[in-house]
Amino acid sequence: MYDKLFTKGKINGCVIPNRIVLAPMDDCLGQTSGEISQRGIEYYTRKAQGGCGLIIIGYVGVSSSKLGGVAMSGQTFLRNIEQRHAISNVAERIHDYGSRVFVQLNHPGRKTNPKFNDGYSPVSATALPTQLTERGFSVCHELSVAEIHEIEDDFANAAEHAYLAGIDGVELHCAHWYLLHQFISPVRNERTDEYGGSMENRCRIVIEIVKKIRTKVPKTYPVTVRMHFFDDEQFHYDLSIEDYVEIAKYFEKNGVDAIHFSIGTEDRTGAPDMKAGWRNKYYKIFKNALNIPIYGPNEVKTPEEAEAILEDDVYDYVVMGRPQSADPDWGKKAKAGHSEDIRPCLNCNFCVYHVTADQYQIRCSVNPTLGREIDALHPVSKGEGTVAVIGGGPAGIQAAMTLSDRGYKVVLFEAREELGGSLNLANKAPGKFRMDNLIRYYRHQVEKRPSIQVCLNAKIDENNLEEIKKLHPYAVILAAGGNQIIPKSIPGIEKGIPCNDILSGKKVIKDSEVVVVGGGMSGLETAEVLAEKGNKVTIVEMAPIVGNGIYFYNVRKTRRGLEEKGTVIKTSTALQEIKDGAVVVAPHNAAFISEAMKGVANIAGVADAVEEDEHKGPYEIKTDATVLALGVAQNMALEEKLETICDNVIAIGDCTKPGKIADATSAAYWRCRNL
Fold first, then answer.
1. Nearest by Cα to 24 from 66, 52, 63
2. Chain-centre distance for alpha carbon 94
3. Which end of the chain is more exposed for a tag (fewer CB within 10 A), N or C?
4. Are 458 and 543 in contact (CB under 8 A)?
5. Are strands 497-498 and 536-540 parallel, antiparallel or unpaired?
6. Which domains does the chain have, with CATH numbers?
7. Is 339 in contact with 304 (CB distance < 8 Å)?
8. pLDDT at 603 (0 to 100)
9. Short-list 46, 49, 47, CA closest to 22
10. Percent of the chain surpassing pLDDT 90
11. Residue 16 is inside which H or E element, if any?
């Protein structure tokens, strides 16, 4: 099964046990000293343990802050012996499981954040504004030729450290608008010396780095490059596919052993609706033009998708970052023929958002142990007795699974006729098919655990606790979800339709004028469903942006889709009253988004410009229906009653504090693991 996927591969002198590659990702798992932390070591070791053939450690810095080399907190570096010794521990642990490991060497260039760079200015090929100039940071310092040579030496020295640490190869990050790509791209490189102008000149820094590395490592040591290409049908502000083919061929000619292609950048990344193989035609162009191995991400999520793409000779290795974040045992489960047990990635991009927006260690919506692998190593005692779980959404199901795996007998109560909770609404918007994958996974995991008894259509409330009493439970896990916010203080609020009624199909509206109040995730998804049915939709949101707290690229893609269907989005606007045939709204100045979110939102182009509103006070918007998507509030009414029949009541998920899927699954796993 999956013969292509589990065939050995080779890059220069490095033999790779299978065709599964862990994409380099920002993880913020380094120490302040630049050494990889023990937490980071366990993070990468877990991927090897799970069957990944080649692990690429992402975002390893090479230069000092003086040369603009620091991009984020928790970044790993390879500049000295101490950092080398730390990363050698990663190599040793990964090799114990038969996997191979490369490090991705990077300089951020104009993407340097002075907040983490000791106040030094970012550097680049040309003195252009940085991504952060609009937030008060200076423009880039244009590198002198001497400084270019110094950075080249930094890359070469880092590669030598990697080799001496037992790392199996190095990858030069020449993509995503980092420094080397800033030189390659004529959009960012306006130099007129030997490092600007022609393709050969713009690529000179990369070729010189490769040649310097070759003087410090054996000739069989893999030196690879990560570069990206734009979908030329949609983006026209960098280089054409043909241009990137010529660059790739030039790299091959000058000693590069393999090329890792990517399209994810400031302007495009994996959105929830992207399907496996969407980049195939581009990869085939490069595959036909080159003789060295190529690989890259392609929205592959399942072993079946991976095998099909390899069978079609699209590329030589399958690169997966987020899928192996969701399930580090992806490779092991695929090899055993248990693809149904692979925890599915949602393409929600929470992992990326958590690092880039919040500058925190990497997390995952569906894998509560991601970034906390070291914590999961601690043994736990075997559970005894029965635990009642109230609520069959993500929090309740994760709690039931965790408790069952510990040895408890679990009785799971769900008020509705099927498991899934809020996921059964979140999957209704266009392109949200990956939510269905998660629902299927959860239901299968519950079914395969005989110690979990499921009671559907079993509503538990303060007036109905008999079923809980009968169990004499050791503990009760309250995961009943939150209550939709319906502010009674707003005149006419009873005329509003809860968004859940729209998403569930309980209420169907077609070919009408509809106002959706609330521009969070629920509001945007509700607007999508309504727009698909031919409605003219207006979104009213109090905050200066829609999608606050949602990964900004996802927000932008959703906005573009809505606006193409004629949806009007009014931010900084508050609901005042719901009338028959109209809503009354007014300008609102509450700026309750984080500073981090403001910055990344502006960078990504999803923040709304603050314009002078023609309306200085309340005004009406005509509507046939008003839909309320104002979020959810905690629902703790049941907790006090439960405490009268059980001493050990644990509330988790939206019922305690409404949040993201990651908040629910993480609380469920860790609270129940330590119960």
1. 52
2. 24
3. N
4. no
5. unpaired
6. 9-375 (3.20.20.70), 380-482+634-673 (3.40.50.720), 493-632 (3.50.50.60)
7. yes
8. 36
9. 47
10. 69
11. strand 14-16
Q: Amino acid letter at 433?
A: F
Read off the pTM: 0.90
pLDDT digits (tens, 9 = 90+) for 226-272: 998 765 445 445 788 899 999 999 999 999 999 999 875 544 555 66
Which residues on adjacent β-strands are paired with residue 540? Answer: 517, 570
Strands 452-455 and 123-124, bridge-based pairing: unpaired
**Confidence band for 118, pLDDT divided at 50, 70 and 90:** confident
Largest CA distance in the chain: 82
Give the pLDDT band of residue 634 (cuts 50, 70, 90).
Answer: confident
Q: Within 13 Å, how many C-alpha atoms sit on residue 206's CB side?
A: 35
Between CA 462 and CA 478 the distance in angstroms is 12
User: What CA dihedral angle connects 224, 230, 236 and 239, to 10 degrees?
Assistant: 20
For 165-190, what is the mean pLDDT? 94
Instruction: List Cβ neighbours of 144 (8 Å cut-off, separation of 6 or more).
Output: none
Task: Determine the Cα–Cα distance for residues 78 and 85; give it in Å rounded to an integer.
Answer: 10
Give long-range contacts, CB 8 A cutoff, 24+ apart: 442-448.
442/394, 442/397, 443/419, 444/340, 444/341, 445/341, 445/397, 445/401, 446/397, 446/400, 446/401, 446/412, 446/419
Q: Which residues pair with 20 in a beta bridge?
A: 318
Tokens for 182, please give them: 């800033």
pLDDT above 70 for 608: no
Task: Tell me the catalytic residues.
Answer: 178
User: For residues 55-88, b (16+ Cβ closer than 10 Å) or e, as one string?
Assistant: bbbbbbbbbbeebbbbbbebbbbbbeeebbebbb
Q: Cβ distance 583 to 555 under 8 Å?
A: no
Integer Cα distance of 331 and 300 in angstroms = 13
Closest to 20 in 3D by CA, of 62, 57, 65, 50 = 50
